[in-house]
């Protein structure tokens, strides 16, 4: 748990270390806050992960448009999280046990799925 003051690109390694995945992803999609040559190099060297993030306005383009297509599709995930914020029990986590919280997340996803069929 970190305060709100560090930049997001400084917290990437903690997120990867706390990952519950068996294998880390080959590509990591981030927004403009992740545009850092040092972070690109570190993820490539230590974790073998390709960082896909658009460049900030005052920098030259370091990625071609083909890689940024993945970045453009991130809205689907962000839209899902926005829909899940309509469920008050998920926004304010009332559940003490993670199994109960996971059940409510799955119930919310099922409700979203049935609503959009």
Amino- and carboxy-terminal Cα gap: 38 Å
- Number of H/I helices: 6
The general outline is globular
Largest sheet: 2 strands, parallel
What is the helix/strand order?
A: HEHEHHHH
- Estimated structural class: mainly alpha
Give the uncertain stretches in residue-range form: none
Radius of gyration computed on alpha carbons = 17 Å
Number of strands: 2
β-sheet strand percentage: 5-15%
Strand order of the largest sheet: 1-2
Question: What helical percentage do the residues reach?
Answer: 40-55%
Q: Mean of the pLDDT scores?
A: 81
Q: Give the assembly state of these chains.
A: single chain
Task: Describe the structure in your own words.
With 117 residues, the protein is mainly alpha-helical. Helices cover 49% and strands 5% of the residues. The protein has six helices and two strands. Strands 1-2 form a two-stranded parallel sheet. Strand 1 (27-29), helix 2 (37-47) and strand 2 form a beta-alpha-beta unit. The longest helix is centred in the C-terminal third of the chain and has 18 residues, at 98-115. The radius of gyration is 17 Å and the shape is globular. The chain starts with 11 loop residues before the first helix and ends with a helix. The relative contact order is 0.09. The mean pLDDT is 81.
Task: Summarize the model shown.
By secondary structure, the protein is mainly alpha-helical. The protein has helices at 12-17, 37-47, 65-72, 75-84, 88-91, 98-115, and strands spanning 27-29, 50-52.
Question: What are its keywords?
Answer:
117 residues, mainly alpha, 5% strand
